[in-house]
Amino acid sequence: MFFSTLFTLFGLGALCWILFNLAVYALPFAIGLTSGMYLYETGQGVFLSIIAGLFIGGFVAVLGEFAFDRIRWAPLKLAIGLIYAVPAGIAGFHAAKGLAEFGSAGAATITLLSWLGALVVGGTAWARVSGWSEVNALSDPHPHRSFDEH
Predict the structure, then answer these.
(1) Backbone angles phi, psi at 3, to 5 degrees
(2) Model pTM?
(3) pLDDT tens string 40-73
(4) I need a labelling partner for 136 at 20 to 30 A (CA). Which of 12, 39, 79, 142 fits?
(5) Which segments cross the bilayer (predicted)?
């Protein structure tokens, strides 16, 4: 009885972790999935469609982090962050809503938890796209040094 409860909690935690990570990368995941499905529908084959979808989704994720790091104009940085954070927030809203409804909570509680999930997942997506570049730049007293000199 104890071990079944422990394994159930571990499984639920792992499921929530997977759901949270997928929600954070909602935009790259959706673009990779859409491109893979398009390639499959045009007759490119299953293997090529999967590999190309994974590559395109990863490229979109890296492109967002690279663009956010290199661009210094604040309105454009805000737009890039929102492009990645808004779909993640929507996915977080629906994921939290599904989990709250699964727990048989009241309507007000479901709404509150859904919006909290949207804020947490959207904020995490923003932080991952930004790469914490400002925080890392401020915490390193010698940014011109290489790792060998520290």
Answers:
(1) -70, -35
(2) 0.70
(3) 999 999 999 999 999 999 999 888 888 888 888 8
(4) 79
(5) 42-64, 76-96, 102-127
Tokens of 138: 């401020």
- Residue 24: what residue type? V
141 pLDDT exceeds 70?
no
Distance separating alpha carbons of residues 114 and 18, to the nearest angstrom: 17
Q: Cα(115)–Cα(133) distance, rounded to whole angstroms?
A: 27
Alpha-carbon dihedral 22, 27, 32, 35, rounded to 10 degrees: 140
| Cα-Cα end-to-end distance for the chain | 52
Tens-place pLDDT, residues 96-124: 888 888 877 789 989 998 999 899 888 88
Report which of 62, 56, 36 is spatially closest to residue 128, judged by C-alpha positions.
62
- Please provide the DSSP assignment of 37-65 as one string: HHHHHTT--HHHHHHHHHHHHHHHHHHHH
Q: How far apart are CA 85 and CA 94, in angstroms?
A: 14
> Would residue 132 be called left, alpha or beta, if left means φ above 0 and alpha means ψ between -120 and 50 degrees?
left
Torsions phi, psi for 43 (to 5 deg): 90, 25
